[in-house]
Recover the amino acids of this structure.
């Protein structure tokens, strides 16, 4: 079988239920695309944050293995880039003869650009700024302080969709913009490359990374007009008081409580419209691919880096609150020459780390290094892989408000170890909206112990050094020694 070309369309902060088979957003191009490919309805990222998630996508590893834990571009970052020695699949493809082109959001490292990892670059965002490679070894200069003086006397009344934060800039949650985040420019850059490419036997890979539907939700009016505010409903857990959850969860939500219920519904309308806009941009890419004559042997992936709370539990965006909506991502693959029985929906757990070994296998590239992700090729061939995972694990050290958090989710249960607060346990079979934390219920003590064992075993396998036995920080109800029985 011929090596496929690979085209990746990665959005930013798009919920998994915004596309088929859930279809909360209106996505005509994706509706057709999903019927032509294989959709993974239970796809999850490793961390609810752009940089660690994208690093996992490109490496096939978890944050504890690749070293990116947070936004690599901010002043208080814990990590500026990947651990030394971490290799990305793009480098393997480049060495094997693939022609690689990158357009859009990078956000994997602030000391390296896509060009350092095998890509020819077009219009790139989230890239290191000039001199960052040298700056990261020096003490931060606190550049964030420079603009706070402009907001010390902002006492004007709150307008629709705004959130007032004394001493901080005025935040507007949603609005209208004809080219949000320059996503059209990103897509135009990629289309230009697709149209100008020489049609020879050289396999190619094109990455297209848009920034929508990331907050704030500013969308072209055309897509807002697709949704009637009267049809928008608040999620079933919108009024969750979260009194049984970590204090940080409630503190995170406090600012969004300034919004009225109608404003929350309006924000949902804008978010869904943003997803429709991204769908339209994806349609432009598909049209350019069709016109190029290379559709049949091109593997196309539609995916996002992480999700969005979208008013669940009264929250927005993404962060440390470990709810499924921040981790659940869209993931659909189409390859006319390779996928058997297209139109299928796979409900097995898959991870964003699974795409690295998938691309390498399809490109017929053998690598000696191990990955935490597993190849999805058997699913594409309509086969059932042996011993497929029955749980999803997550790793977060916090999105610049640092806090150790690890979780394990099975079909029926979800356990969250919070090193900064008390733990969480959800009975997903009876409480899919994650409203009732039953971690303090004595009846579930053995369930917590069983899930803790698996959590620590995964930590061991992924070189996760999130714990030590010091009395002031060893706060887990069941420590890592549980993973080794009586050893």
């Amino acid at each position: 079988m011929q090596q496929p070309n690979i085209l990746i369309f990665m959005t930013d902060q798009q919920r998994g239920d915004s596309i088929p088979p859930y279809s909360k957003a209106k996505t005509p191009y994706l509706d057709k695309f999903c019927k032509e490919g294989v959709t993974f309805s239970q796809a999850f990222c490793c961390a609810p944050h752009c940089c660690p998630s994208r690093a996992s996508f490109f490496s096939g590893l978890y944050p504890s293995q690749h070293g990116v834990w947070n936004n690599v571009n901010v002043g208080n970052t814990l990590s500026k880039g990947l651990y030394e020695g971490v290799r990305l699949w793009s480098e393997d493809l480049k060495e094997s003869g693939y022609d690689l082109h990158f357009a859009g959001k990078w956000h994997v490292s602030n000391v390296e650009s896509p060009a350092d990892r095998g890509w020819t670059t077009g219009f790139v965002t989230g890239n290191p700024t000039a001199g960052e490679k040298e700056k990261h070894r020096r003490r931060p200069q606190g550049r964030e302080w420079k603009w706070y003086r402009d907001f010390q006397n902002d006492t004007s009344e709150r307008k629709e969709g705004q959130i007032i934060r004394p001493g901080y800039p005025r935040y507007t949650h949603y609005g209208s913009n004809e080219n949000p985040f320059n996503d059209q420019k990103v897509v135009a850059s990629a289309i230009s490359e697709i149209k100008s490419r020489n049609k020879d036997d050289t396999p190619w890979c094109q990455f297209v990374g848009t920034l929508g539907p990331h907050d704030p939700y500013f969308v072209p009016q055309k897509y807002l007009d697709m949704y009637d505010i009267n049809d928008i409903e608040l999620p079933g857990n919108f009024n969750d008081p979260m009194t049984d959850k970590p204090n940080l969860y409630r503190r995170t939500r406090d600012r969004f409580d300034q919004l009225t219920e109608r404003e929350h519904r309006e924000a949902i309308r804008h978010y869904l419209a943003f997803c429709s806009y991204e769908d339209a941009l994806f349609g432009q890419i598909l049209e350019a691919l069709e016109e190029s004559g290379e559709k049949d042997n091109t593997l196309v992936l539609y995916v996002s880096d992480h999700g969005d709370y979208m008013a669940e539990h009264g929250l927005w965006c993404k962060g440390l609150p470990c709810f499924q909506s921040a981790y659940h991502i869209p993931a659909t693959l189409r390859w006319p020459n390779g996928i058997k029985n297209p139109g299928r929906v796979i409900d097995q757990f898959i991870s964003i780390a699974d795409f690295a070994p998938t691309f390498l296998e399809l490109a017929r590239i053998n690598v000696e290094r191990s990955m935490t992700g597993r190849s999805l090729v058997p699913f594409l061939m309509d086969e059932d892989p042996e011993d497929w995972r029955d749980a999803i694990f997550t790793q977060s050290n916090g999105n610049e408000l640092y806090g150790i958090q690890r979780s394990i989710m099975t079909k029926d249960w979800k356990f969250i170890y919070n090193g900064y607060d008390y733990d969480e346990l959800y009975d997903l079979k009876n409480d899919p909206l994650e409203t009732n934390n039953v971690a303090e219920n004595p009846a579930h003590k053995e369930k917590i112990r069983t899930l803790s064992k698996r959590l620590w075993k995964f930590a061991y396998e992924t070189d996760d050094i999130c714990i030590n036995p010091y009395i002031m920080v060893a706060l887990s109800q069941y420590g890592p020694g549980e993973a080794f029985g009586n050893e």
Observations:
- The first strand starts at residue 5 and ends at 11.
- The radius of gyration is 22 Å.
- The mean pLDDT is 93.
- The chain has 13 helices and 17 strands.
